[in-house]
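Assess this one:
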Amino acid sequence: MSSSAFDYIIVGAGSAGCVLASRLSEDPNVSVLLVEAGKKDSNPLIHAPTGVAGLAVLGQANWKYNTTPQPQLNARRGYQPRGKVLGGSSSINAMLYVRGQAEDYDQWAALGNVGWDYDSVLPFFIKSECNDTFDDELHGTEGPLGVSNPTHASELNNRFISACEANGVPRNDDYNGHEQAGAHILQRTIWNGERCSSAKAYLTPAVQRNNLTIMTNTLTHRVTLVDGKATGVVVSSQGKERVIKAKREVLLSAGAFGSPQLLNLSGIGAAEELAHHGISPQVELAGVGKNLQDHIDYVVDYRSTETHSSFGISLKGSFQLLGDTFKWIRKREGRITSSIAESGAFFTTKDDGERPDIQLIFVVGMVDDHARKLHLGHGFSCHATVLRPHSRGTVSLASSDPSDAPLIDPQFLADPRDQQTILDGARKMHEILASEALSEGRGALLYPVNYHDDTALMSDIRARADTQYHPVGTCRMGPNNDPLAVVDNQCRVYGVSGMRVVDASIMPTLVSGNTNAPTIMIAEKIAHDIKLGWTT
């Protein structure tokens, strides 16, 4: 084995890792290593926003995880796509910019995480953001992360918003503003006609710095520990294993699945579980891999006779797409700049509920089984997502081999409260989609169901619902009296010095919306803390 040393080693070049690498390397006096198991983000499907559909079909730049059989979903194995590329999941996601609700962060603080209330995290959302539409006390216009509203949105979106209004969901143009509830055009991480992933926003401007080293196609096996201190990592590339030393800190940003897996492989976790895989326990932390939360999601598809307002598979649609592609190549304009998911809504299913508990995402194309099942023709679809699920799952080792996928068990709908919420949310979504405002060109349901019948609707949900791609919580942040806490309020791993986890896995509870923007915020905040801590 050969060895080398850096001040900071960051494992995982996803939404958080790219931010850390960029911010920490702003100091020319430190050396930073960013280690990524995937490739460079050179695939043109990553950068062309509508390429998200192609990435889903081809399964590229993706770990392509599966869950264990889910009892409440007819024992089906769910699909869990995660980015395996520079930018991580921000390079393959639907590019939606959603912060969640202020109450989400106030709840984190109420759980004992000092400094994570909404007022404390808002400056880091603002610091990261460059918004082309909103410029007020809640938004940033000078950050690296480009956020834009669609310039070529389908007319279907206005019909969808009108349908929401007809069903008691008013229009709200800025769901990242003072109030989340309402129907809206979606804000997207798209800038100058291209996807603005964490890699594009943070790494591209930093890649030429002499103090930043980026290793791709490199798998991290474990963190090395000496006398309770993280001293480096063991990695392999092209079949060769090596040890790399960290002079200051090791930062895990491998995500809600990868970070607990690496902790366990390093001997950090529940001793009994580690011993089962022949791993010598180093630090007892029972919460590693526990507290998994994810957004359960149910999709409804309608066929449409219109080809101009939606994406689809047809001869006319193919010619349109070809012309749109040439336009995008020349000018970075036109329909290829669409995230396909273009509008949405937040509402509550509870009579006395003040906070939305359901998110709708409206897509100007048919999406079936994560876009892996293709259908001839055109149409539109809509997702209904339970925002704050009560169900809790786990991530655990399948073996001691770092190349083996972990065992992912979200326990979707295990809590009866989630079953009622998704049932109520799905029924309202069906009512919205069946409204007069969307009647023009609307055809038949792809999967017909009597949504007025709770039994029939729940049967359809159990047959087809799956993740909305927002796993969090498996390295829970909490005070030292929290039995499931893995990291403290500065994301430092309990019982280990010189080591932090910085990604969505540290969220104690799931935010009420998509997780990319909050994950970037987390990394901005911790990078600030790290730099402040090493200079005081």
User: Anything to note?
Assistant: DSSP finds 13 helices and 25 strands in the chain. The CA atoms of residues 302 and 367 lie 10 Å apart. Residues 416-433 form the longest helix (18 residues).
